[in-house]
Design brief:
seven-stranded parallel β-sheet, about 15% strand, about 350 residues, Rossmann fold, 13 strands, globular, 11 helices
């Protein structure tokens, strides 16, 4: 008798805009979904429920983790780390104990794992791992994913660059540009603090926040949400792909170009440049961190490019205009529904 059941995908922590896009794609592909999260039918404290969810599943996608769009207070630092490592560890233990483990486990990670780079790009094969808080979170996250033997489950870490879509990072960039503050953002001196110090079992880096003389030329690696979804589908279908995979446009930008492009997209002719100490004041008011803008992320998708992956969005301005148009359309739709 042929098995006619739909394929099963377990989605963990899929409440953000990346998760919503992946869920929509999997539903369109005919998957039956099982959800794990802080709320819903299966919660992280329900270890037996998690094991039942992954047993017999075809695919597990884990996107769980507290947003990094916050101040790195001691409490938030601990939550950012724990929300990634503990959920990933719970999934690994459930998969290890499953009678019929999934064939593929895709776990979120971040391109921030690489060092501040202005001299050359980082690929999966020759990239240099950085140091400090954000890097320690990323390396701890990936260790939790790849630890132990799961002989029948292929594991992939999605090292995603800044994702352009209806998420907090893109909204912040548009808001800054519309406010007339869309000039280049210059790293440099800042009041000393310890929020970026290392964390976890193997903390790295200095206790002092690093600073660099970037002249607003720090690299900006990005990827459109459509290409994230397409990459997930390619990884699912190509059984040769495993390990860390960079999900980033093959055409990274730099901060000056990014801000100039944003000004054109929102039709704001003025863009006041910002020095590090000024930016720190603004980030304090917004309750977030300047690292999200100032770190030079120069990442290339070596594995996907070698695989022949065709990115739909390789031009930064086109990608930003597409995201803005989509946000406007969705806002209009929500307004009509509300009426």
């Amino acid at each position: 008798m042929n098995d006619t059941r739909p394929p099963i995908a377990v989605i963990a922590g899929g409440s953000g805009f990346v998760g919503r896009a992946i869920i929509a794609a999997l539903v369109a592909d005919g998957y039956e979904l099982r959800h794990i999260g802080r709320s819903g039918p299966i919660r992280w404290a329900d270890h037996a429920g998690i094991r039942r969810a992954v047993d017999g599943a075809d695919l597990v996608v884990n996107l769980a983790g507290k947003s990094v769009d916050c101040r790195y207070t001691d409490r938030n630092r601990d939550e950012i780390l724990a929300s990634r490592v503990e959920t990933t560890r719970a999934l690994r233990e459930a998969i290890a104990g499953a009678e019929h483990p999934p064939r593929l486990w895709i776990n979120a990670s971040t391109a921030t794992i690489y060092r501040h780079a202005m001299d050359r790009p980082n690929t999966e094969h020759d990239g240099e791992i950085g140091s400090g808080f954000s890097v320690d979170v990323a390396t701890s996250w990936e260790r939790a994913l790849f630890e132990g033997a799961l002989p029948t489950t292929r594991r992939v870490a999605l090292r995603m660059a800044i994702v352009l879509g209806e998420g907090p990072a893109t909204r912040m960039l548009f808001s800054v540009a519309r406010a007339g503050l869309g000039g280049a953002q210059h790293d440099g001196w800042c009041p000393p603090h310890r929020r970026y110090r290392g964390i976890g079992e193997h903390p790295t880096g200095s206790d002092r926040a690093p600073s660099y003389r970037t002249g607003g030329r720090q690299k900006f690696s990005w990827v459109h949400i459509d290409d994230v979804v397409a990459a997930v589908r390619v990884i699912r279908d190509d059984e040769t792909l495993h390990g860390p995979i960079n999900v980033a446009s093959p055409n990274p930008s730099d901060n000056r170009t990014l801000m100039r492009t944003l000004r054109r997209v929102v039709r704001m002719p003025i863009g006041v440049p910002t020095l590090r100490w000024m930016l720190e004041l603004g980030m304090w008011a917004l309750r977030t961190e300047s690292e999200l803008i100032l770190k030079s992320r120069w990442v290339l998708p070596g594995t996907l490019t070698a695989r022949g992956f065709a990115f739909a969005h390789t031009d930064l301005e086109e990608a930003l205009r597409d995201v803005r148009a989509g946000a406007r359309a969705n806002k209009s739709t929500r307004a009509r529904v509300a009426r």
